[in-house]
Amino acid sequence: MSNLTRRNVIRLGTAASLATLARVSAAEDAGKKTGIALLGLGNYATTQLAPALKNGRNARLAGIVTGSPDKVPVWQKQYGIPDANVYNYTNFDTIADNKDIDIVYVVTPTALHPEFAIRALKAGKHLICEKPMAPTVEDCTRMIRAAEENKRTLQIGYRLHWDPFHLRLMDAMKEKQFGPWPAIDASDGGRMNDFSGYHAWRVNKELGIAGALYDLGVYAVQAQLYSSQELPIRVTARSWTERKEIFNQVPEHWEWELEFEGGRKAKGFASYGKSVNYIRVETAKGRIQIEPSYGYGGQNGSTPDGPMDFQHVPQQQLQIEGQVDAILSGKPSRVPGEMGRRDIRVIRGIMAAAESGKAHEFGNFE
Question: Once rounded to an integer, what is the mean pLDDT over residues 201-212?
């Protein structure tokens, strides 16, 4: 597959399973919002997802799954969660008997995604998995198969697919509004100093896998792919560390270059030591740019036609509403598990190239 249009992205591997898609029980109860349980109550769940669900048009926070008993009373008081909808990681599988919960949203460190995703799917729940999808391509495949076997949906938490700035970029590139692109540059990084508490897992190789490459690099990889609207042929990469006292398990900085047909290239960068946040696409008629690009506080963008005149939107809320709509309607998701697996394939290629010092050939993404 040489072209990756928005339509093709949506179709990636979903046609067969979605044809027999089971509707969530909430769809049968007119006016009732779909019940979602958050699995993992870290910083992102606390500050972004839970507030988004509180304001959701078609979804509500119905339950929680946590390994921290001290968090339970706080969440119950704030969101009115009944005792019957509170689970820990040991009794989690009994969620299968809970008709009040239709979807599980996995928000743990990356290494734990496959286990909890597969358990949720086997329990008969639809799944939203936070990005990046999983440590390896093989893990992603196991998750996808579990969704197919249990006739449930698997979607990835790619919120920017509901952001107007990034949608404008996707549409412009899909429709080639400004001609062909000769070069792309995508970077996401922040100089982080505190890796305690909520952030300790990020520099732990077992949990965070490759540090900034997984945590932030997935945004840059996504931007490169929906800007190019194609799949890369090969990648070259390197990684390095300056603050070795902090980064003794994972590199501090990652840099890579994806190569596409015709020798066109897309540069990428992810870092815990340098603050950068942009996607820049050179086209025949000028630059398309979003900077800042990936944060929660709003974007700023332009095309060769001028500034992108959009207001900031509640990304997580729109994301979850869109994902629930896909489940209720049986329509393909914008962000299926196959998309998540594709991105992990690219990220693992970056890691392989950095380790070998040679170009990594991707071969057939199918």
Answer: 98
